[in-house]
Amino acid sequence: MAGLISAPHARDQFMAISQLRWQIFVHSLRTLPGRLEMVSWIFVGLGYAILGIAGSLGLGALGWFLVSRDKFAWLALPIWIIFLVWQLLPVMATAFTENFDASNFLRFPLRYRSYFLIRIFYGALDPTTLIGILWLIGLTAGIGIAAPRFLSWTALVLGTFAALNILLGRMIFSWVERWLARRKSREIIGIFFFLFIIGVQFIGPVVGHYAGRRAHPALPQLLVEILPAEHLMPPGLAAAAVSDAAQGGFAIALGDLALLCGYAAVFLLLLDIRMRAQYRGENLSEAVAPAASPKTKQAVRFGWTMPGLSGPVAAIVEKEFRYLARSGPMLFTLVMPVVVLLLLKMGSANHMGSRPVRMPPLDFAFPFGAAYALLILSNLTYNSFGADGAGIQFFFVSPVRFREIVLAKNVTHAALLAIEMLLMWTAVCVLFHPPAIGVTLATLVGAVFAALLNFTAGNFMSLYAPKKFDFAVLGKQRAAGTTVLASMGVQIFIFGLVGFTMFVTSFNGKIWLATILFLAFAAAAFAGYSAALNRIDHVAISRRESIIAALCRT
Amino acid sequence: MDTTAIATEHLTRRFGELVAVDDVNLRVTAGQFFGFLGPNGAGKSTTIKMLTGLLAASAGRMEILGVDLASNPVEVKRQIGVVPEGMALFGRLTGTEYLNFVGRMYGLDRETSAKRTAELLEFMQLAERPKALVTDYSHGMQKKLALAAAVIHGPKILFLDEPFEGVDAIAAGTLKAMLQRMIVRGATIFLTSHVLEIVERLCSHLAIIDHGRLVAQGSLEELRAGVQAHAAPAGEKLTLEEIFLRIVGSSRLADQELSWLG
């Protein structure tokens, strides 16, 4: 081709992509939401920085302690911690991590190697990778200070371990993304994911349960069986490579390192399979998903009616419930408060043996569960248009005022909260004992106050910082960073006020006073909610362009 | 007497320094199949967004069926149907649920909404997979569903932004059949499209916008006569594409420009 004198250099392409990322970042600061997002990022970044530096110092001190006291066998502990945080945190805390979609670059003459490196490099620029690297540096330094002659070997082993973690993380993400691309498999993965999250929360109580029994016969046997397997896992191998070298078994240490490299090679291979498929231009978008249902004849179906609600409001409530019913993860989220109560029950059962007296906090199991339910509901209330995506345009062209649309969303959320509260109350009755009438009343009125305040703030945040949920991409099912921070602020205020009031009144044996106070708070919150609802039309209309742009973004 | 369906006066929209729509005075008579044309970035979508309430005007007035859009948007929206650029679908509903939802949002009672939903799905050949979610529909099926949603309440004016983009010949045929049926029954259709052959076949009246300014408006014959009077030899019947290119002007590459293109 005329003028095309040589193949493009990968370095130039890397530079061009870096420049592009920088330009996108700079342009994002042109708008107010973009600047607010930046502020929220600074706060979150500070949190991550503190976690990274403090963890690094702590793990460094631990490494120094273990090596200087010849407790090499325990080196596996910090390495396992790093491994678990590195691999699990990105999945569990996706609110602030957004994956860079490099598939758009496939139209350019990128060599496969360049594409692979771009995916690895930009994918690795997430907070957990940076924290993991910082922690490993800290651990390496700690070991190096305690035993300077092992510094270079430790650095080599832990460097390999870092590379393995990056490869494993990218491999998991790329495969999960592939499964998430299809709605059906996405729902199944979502359910497994939430079962996993629920399972993780049971670890503490189960350990506590066994730890409370002095000599459980099964536990040492279990540990004896698990330990050899632990040595064969990547963190165990990394720890063994360091400790074997320190104890003179250099040949064994080399073998450990070789096995670690073997793991890395397997992860690389699995990642390579996904990357090659992407490079070949596989399309996993929803539109090409096969139609799910068999051919059947259409029957006339009527929409829902709800007493006291106009047709449009009832239609929106129906639509919201249908959306929720089709989101497996969302349904599981709503079950979580009951799971938390179960955890509380297990926790209290563990303490029963040591404490003959019933734990006072159990009187507050119902308020505790209600608070958790409200917290989970905030995912919906603070980004109530996130799941609508391009459908938001319909709300703007329809002859329905935004006040009614937002009201319908709040009615749905209020109905969900009512269901949750009923579920909670029943669970508390079954798991513990029926809560006292005073506590029940105070909790119900407190929940009304909290819900009204959350709806008011959530309605505004839904319009000021909307963010499209992308069910097909990991890390894009959460609200904007600004919204998460605002929601956190409101929750701290609500739980502080409600918790303090309940504590003080119950301490003085006047829990009924809390109900009266919450009634007053709820009345004030309702006045605020009504006033805010009357402003919603104005806000929605004045911000329609940015709302549509944010929610229709592909 | 002609009734004005859509009228704009000095309609203007600025994005910072850029004037996307500049002092546009548009007039569409009721019952017309009206094509709104222009090159990329000329201001077509911006205009249609303003006329349907998706975008605020920086200046000027818009009247739909004699009702001022700015002061009475809900009343105007009740009378119109819209297929916007992004189609505005709710992906996690089935086609039936979506149309039922839209019908009720436009104030139809449950029975009417359900009945029309069934009829529309049948007409659009979307009734065979009632349990499939909209997100699992093909692009053409989504376009048909979006059009069905836009007409479920029997609007007097239909606004369509690129309705034939990405649609195959079969789906396009269904869409055209429905639009022609609406015109026969007295509705007004306001359409933007880059497919000039379709516009030429469907539209009776046209307006052309370029760099935000309305540069031509009238029936196809009026536009043809206007262009022919200035530039074309007598007796030659210009196609819409030729009329369009002569009105907005087409830049030609000089020999020395982009010589590296091979």
Topology summary:
The complex is a heterodimer of chains A (554) and B (262).
Chain A (H helix, E strand, L loop, with lengths): L9 H19 L3 H37 L7 H17 L19 H12 L3 H20 L4 H30 L2 H29 L6 H15 L1 H13 L3 H30 L31 H15 L2 H25 L12 H17 L10 H6 L4 H30 L5 H28 L16 H27 L3 H32 L1 H9 L2
Chain B lengths: L3 E12 L2 E7 L2 E3 L3 E5 L6 H9 L6 E6 L2 E2 L4 H7 E4 L11 H11 L4 H14 L15 H13 L5 E5 L7 H16 L3 E5 L3 H7 L2 E6 L2 E7 H11 L9 H9 L14
Parallel strand pairs in B: 4-9, 4-10, 7-8, 8-9
Antiparallel strand pairs in B: 1-2, 1-3, 1-5, 5-6, 10-11
Helix pairs in contact in B: 3-4, 3-5, 5-6, 8-9
Question: In summary, what is this structure?
Answer:
The complex is a heterodimer of chains A (554) and B (262). Chain A is mainly alpha-helical and 554 residues long.
What does this structure look like?
The complex is a heterodimer of chains A (554) and B (262). By secondary structure, chain A is mainly α. Chain A has two domains: 10-23 and 30-286, no CATH class; 311-552, no CATH class. Helices cover 74% and strands 0% of the residues of chain A. Chain A is built from 19 helices and no strands. The longest helix of chain A is centred in the N-terminal third of the chain and has 37 residues, at 32-68. The relative contact order of chain A is 0.09. Residues 287-293 and 355-360 of chain A have low confidence and may be disordered. Chain B is α/β, with parallel strands linked by helices and 262 residues long. Chain B has one domain (4-218): P-loop containing nucleotide triphosphate hydrolases (Rossmann fold), CATH 3.40.50. In chain B, strands 7-8-9-4-10-11 form a six-stranded mixed sheet, with helices on both faces. In chain B, strands 1, 2, 3, 5 and 6 form a five-stranded antiparallel sheet that branches. The longest helix of chain B has 16 residues, at 169-184. Chain B is globular and about 60 Å long. The mean pLDDT of chain B is 87.
